[in-house]
Amino acid sequence: MNTASLIVTATADSAEEHSVDGRSARWASHREQRRAELIKVARRAVHRLGPDASMDDIAAAAGTSKSVFYRYFGDKAGLQQAVGEVVIGQMQGVIFSAIKTARDPRNGLKNMVSAYLHMAETSPNVYAFVTQAAPGQGVAKVPDIGHAGGALGGFFDAIIEMVAAPMREHFGGAETPLARYWPTAAIGLVRTAGESWLDGARETQGNRPDAEEMAEQITQWLFLGIETQLNLPK
């Protein structure tokens, strides 16, 4: 084969590879777009139907078959993970923005708690869907912040580090017990109290505080404890 033939062959091969790469890129883009649409529809369905909505229910709301959801997400646990990544990413963004406007550490914590409660209250069904135990994992346990999995684990890890960093800076970089353990304990209290507060919304409780009142109460517990509210004898 002469030089001219080699050049023509190489050019043709390159054009074919470029065409294949282009089709692959378009298909990947289409698949990602379709996946995002399915997550959005699933989120709306869960908001309306509740956290125990089945894959059949969600697929019906999407106007498709559940086999499509299995193709994109594997199973219901995969769908929970995908929806959770979107929802929790939005919550994290709101919380980060809220803490930047803080006047002092106490106000920063209250802003963070308030943003968390407001976001969760926007759709308790969706929040429960992305935080409950996946099918096959048994009964959901008491929230374990240190071992939360998936998108939820990454979310709380980021929030804990956000609280811990200024504490370490305050102590000159030293890893004191306060800087090491308090942020995890604090976020555990926020999540557990917050989820109990969300559950209370489903009941008729005349003394249930609103989100701002609850945020202030949690902040007070974290900063001052409960001694001032117990009216203990001196």
In short:
The chain has 234 residues and is mainly alpha-helical.
Descriptive key words:
mainly alpha; single chain
Question: What this model shows, in words?
Answer:
This protein has 234 residues and is mostly helical. Helices cover 76% and strands 0% of the residues. It has 10 helices and no strands. It has helices at residues 3-49, 55-62, 66-73, 76-100, 105-122, 124-131, 150-170, 177-200, 211-224, 227-230. Helix 1 (3-49) packs across helix 6 (124-131) and helix 3 (66-73) crosses helix 4. The protein is globular, with a radius of gyration of 24 Å.
Helix and strand composition category? mainly alpha
- The Rg value, from CA coordinates, equals 24 Å
- Total number of helical segments? 10
Task: Write down how many β-strands occur, each being a DSSP E stretch of 2 or more residues.
Answer: 0
Q: State the helicity in percent bands.
A: over 70%
The biggest beta sheet is recorded as: none
Net shape = globular
